[in-house]
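Handout, section 4.2: multi-component inputs.
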Amino acid sequence: MRKCFSLFMFLCCLFLLSACQAPKSAGLATVVDLADDSSQVRFDDNRLAASLQVLGALTRHNPDGFIIAQIELQNLTQRNLPLQYHFSWFDAGGMEIYPGKRAWQQKNLHGGEIANLQAVSPYPGAARFVVYFRRIP
Amino acid sequence: MLNRCFIVFTLTALGAVFLTGCRTQLGYADPQEARILSTRLGAYDLQQNAIAMIDSLLSNPVFNRKLAEQFPDGRRPVISVQGLINDTRQLNLKLDAITNSISTRLINSDKFEFMDLPANNEALLQIIADIMGGVGDEARKAQLLGMQDRPDYILTGQVQEISESDSRVSESYYKLTMRLVNLQTFKFDWAEENDIRKTQTKARFGY
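Output:
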């Protein structure tokens, strides 16, 4: 009887703590350096990393200096994966161009879907960009 | 005795969690974060529309080719943004938020010069409205071309809504269409549309 009561109380505590905690906002980040076209992916959330794979990054330089970036993604699960993503652009000195001015965009990836996400640099002088992915809270 | 202490301790801990963790919270939220609160057109939807339009305007290859043909000397074209037409059921929608976002990013992109269209410039606005509506074409065009202080392009647009629902599912579809009118040729040099579909499904059980 005492064990049952303890277990019940423990579950109550777990439920309360999980309900009241701040939402999880970690995700993935892909850094692409335009100078050598190198890219690296940083994982901050292993659960999202198991559901989402970054297949590659492409960039195109327009004649007027603007850069178009494309990230290829695959949903590794069989279920819909609602995501939000955010492009941040940096100049050659590493300073972010117009920080915090671009909203997170949403994308609903169907099960197994491969999708391309595109963005344009806010200014012609971009040298590097970072794409962040995370689940919609 | 031990059992009683354990119960008191657990109840105290639960009470503390209730009082601290689950109280109503006040704080700052990320204004750029994805948010969905209802099927109505919200601030986040307007932000998404603005991003789609600006990205397209800055990178569209057809428009870039037309720009290079019209401005071979590399001069930056002067652009003005006209208020969007609200063709939704939400009459209090602040569509100026989209046009202001678009204007700001276009100015900062260094691709365009920006000219504000003051509300009291009724002559210019009326001429543009007449031309777009096909009224007095040639005379109006000549009058506009004769104006010294006028933009090269004017950005116009419209937001439309289609809603449908049944007993469980309500769905709203919003389409933003924008067009860039060349005030030299009176043709559309660029057009883009962005769709947003929002759904709300009521639970079979619960609330």
